[in-house]
Amino acid sequence: MRGREGAFGVLLIKMLPSSAASEQEELDLISQLPDSILHSILLLLPFKDSARTSILSSRWRHLWEEAPLRLDDYYLCHNEHLVSWIFYSHRGPIESLHLYYFTRDTVDRFVESAVQRGIRELKLVGFVRRPYQLPSSILTCKSLHQLSVVACQFPQAVLPSIFPNLKELRLSYVMLRNDLLQILLSSCGSLDTLQLKDCWNSSVSSVSSPRLRKFTWKSSTVDELIIEDMPNLESLMLDEYTTRDCKVKVLNAPKLQLLGFLCADFQTLQLGGTLLHQQPASIFQVNAMPCRMAMLSSVKVLAINMEQSFNKTLLDLLRCFPCLEKLFILKYGGSCYKTHVDKEIWNEHSSLSFLDHLKTVTVKGYYNSQSDLELLRYLVGHGKVLRKIILLYSKTFNDEKFVEAKKRQFSVEKRASSDLELCFFIDTKNNVHFSLWNELIWER
Locate the F-box domain: which residues (predicted)? Predict the structure, then answer.
């Protein structure tokens, strides 16, 4: 924001006539802007900085009170008295509101006021053991575009038409009783993004929506997940264990571009007319109906969870996605650190079609094992349009000499792409799995 203000100020100065150049130092150019522009500037500032502008001068005294309010600071939104004071002092529209662990009466009061003032983004976080019911006023709010709900519950009677203009819905620890999920999908006419995380109801296994573009699912209560009819679905994100612990069937999603996470130990995965499955002896098989592999060809971004060393299963899986452009691999270092690697596995797959399209590869959990090295050699030697390989490693390997040695090693080896860049980064979080909403994947 500071950069934008600086550039904007310079632009205004350059536009001044030459006769006014001597008065530039005395003019407050920003304050001369119309209220509507200043309101937009205040909306981009953090809440505390925005509120503090009211003491600058008489010109700014009431601007903050009338500008759209973004109340989403995590620590501030835990303080009921402070939030009450803000609602009392501020008279303008509510752009964003986050509420954490308040009493039900307090939530009802704040939400009711926010709805009357055109709330666009709302996040409610309740208590898992004592979830409170969503205020009925929010269900029919026409201004609401984004809703995030944690440990809350919907009213017993849900109207057939709710959330008329909602675009993003994120539910965590919410009871999806009866046919609530299908009601949400059918009644929210503008819904674009749906995220379900640990929502309880073992009967929910089939999902359909003619409009949904992004769908995220994390649940351990179902044995089978069926994406029945989603003609506009572009992104399907599953948690690391869904494809391992339950059957996943994507029957109709012709526009699917991002798929993850696929556990390398999955049992059954159906994409359109293509059935991928593994036998107990880790024999990978693909049964595809004639002329029905279009869905596999549409996938451009793939995220894979590896709990073993890179082997033939990984390459056989990649072979099923001929137009892959971005690949994300999560490794569990403890189980992937093997000294014996069958190099013939890589030599047998030197002409796979996805190598003609693959541009970036990210490996989280790089441990410099022999398996890791063979993977790098394979990609460097056969990735014809490969531009970047990103390796996220733990602090254990935080050695500049080690990194430089690896870069030199792979820069002198025969490369299929002259533009290839090898990047090493320390995994600051150092966790054992990707987040379901990993920023690297969503930046695709």
Answer: 27-78
> What count of other Cβ atoms lies within 10 Å of the Cβ of residue 23?
9
Residues of the chain with pLDDT under 50: 1-16, 18-25, 281-284, 288-292, 334-339, 436-437, 444
Answer for the pair 139, 161: CB distance below 8 angstroms, yes or no.
Answer: no
3-state secondary structure labels for all residues of 263-293: ECCCCEEEECCEEEEECCCCCEEEEECCCCC
Name which of 270, 265, 269 is nearest 281 in CA terms: 265
What one-character-per-residue DSSP string does 97-152 give?
A: EEEES--HHHHHHHHHHHHHTT--EEEEE--SSSPEEPPHHHHT-SS--EEEEESE
Question: Which residue from 195, 317, 299 is spatially nearest to 256, judged by alpha carbons?
Answer: 299
Q: Take residue 301 and report the two structure tokens written for it.
A: 């971004």
310: three-class secondary structure by DSSP: coil
Residue 238: strand pairing partners: 217
Fold designation for 68-204: 3.80.10
Torsion of Cα atoms, 196 then 200 then 201 then 204, to 10°: 10
Structure tokens at 3: 């950069």
Q: What is the pLDDT of residue 300?
A: 93
Quick: pLDDT tens for 239-268. 877 777 788 889 999 999 999 888 877 777
Separation of alpha carbons 333 and 335, rounded Å = 6
**Domain residue limits, the chain:** 1-67, 68-204, 300-444
